[in-house]
Amino acid sequence: MNEKDFAELAAGAALHALSADDENRYRRALVEHPEWAAVADVDADSVALLGEGVTPVAPPPGVRAALLAQIARTPQGDTDPHDTDAHDTAGSTPGVASAGGPEEPAVRRPRRWTRLAFALAACLALLVGVGIGAVALNAQLTRPASVVALQEIEAAGDAQQATVELDGGATATAHWSGSVGKAVLVTDGLPETDAGKTYELWFVRGEEPIAAGVFDPEDGAATALLEGEMRAGDAIAVTVEQEGGSPSGQPTTDPVIVIPTA
Q1: What's the whole-model pTM score?
Q2: How far apart are CA 75 and CA 113, in angstroms?
Q3: Which uninterrupted H or E stretch holds 222?
Q4: Which of 9, 13, 77, 131 has the highest count of CB atoms within 10 angstroms of its CB?
Q5: Residue 150, CB half-sphere, CA atoms under 13 Å: how many?
Q6: Which residue range(s) make up the domain with 133?
Q7: For the region Disordered, what residue ranges are annotated (predicted)?
Q8: 93 is a domain residue
Q9: pLDDT in tens, 50-74
Q10: 105-132 per-position pLDDT tens digit
C-alpha cells in the first residue's frame, strides 16, 4: 500500500465508513507506517470541526438518498475512459488465462469513493447542521474584504498606522502599507449619521480629494477599506455626504476625520 491508497482509507475511517476488510488494512498500514498517522489525524480533525458546536437536526427529506446515489454513480476505479488499453484490460475477466498465456491474478483497483464520500458528508453535515457551528464556519469563509485587507496590511513589513481622537471620545485609526497599496480605516464610537446621510472616505492627494467609498458604522464601529490604490503621502479623510456618496465626486462638507500618513 502506498500513501495515496492509505489516504483514501483514512478518509473513510474518519467517517466510520470502512468495511471490515478495509478497516483491517487501514489498521495494519498505521502500524507499518507510523509516519502516515498525520494524514489520519487531519481527516479526524476535519470531521470533528464540522460537528463542533452544531446541534444535530433531522436532514431534509431526500438528502441522504441523493448522497448515496451520488456515491453509487461514482466510478470505483481510476480507468481513463479514453484509454483503449485500459478498456481492454478492464474488459478482461480477472483470474482467467488469456490466449497463449498463463492465468493472471485479479488486480485490486484502488477505491476512490471514500474521498468523495468525505467531501459529500462534509456538505451534508453543513446542510443538516444549520446552527451556530455552520454560521461560524460560513463567517470564516466569507470574511469582508476590509478584514482581509487589514490582515494583509498588518502582515506587511512596512505596515503603518495612525490614530486620531474625535469629539465625544470616538477614535479613528488608519492602517496602511505602501507595498500592499491599500488603506483601511477602523473606527470606534463614531456617531450614527442622520437619515439619508452616510460617511464617505477620501484620499487627499496634495490638494485633490479622491473619492474612496462610503461606509456606515454599526454601534459606532466600522472597518472600512478605502477603494482605489493608496499612494505615498496621501491623507485619509472622512466627510458626511448624502446616502450613496457625493454625486459630484467632491466633498460637500468639512471633513470630520483627517489622518495624515506622511
Answers
A1: 0.50
A2: 8
A3: strand 222-225
A4: 9
A5: 16
A6: 3-77+109-141
A7: 75-108, 242-262
A8: no
A9: 655 555 555 555 555 665 666 666 5
A10: 444 444 554 555 555 555 555 544 544 4
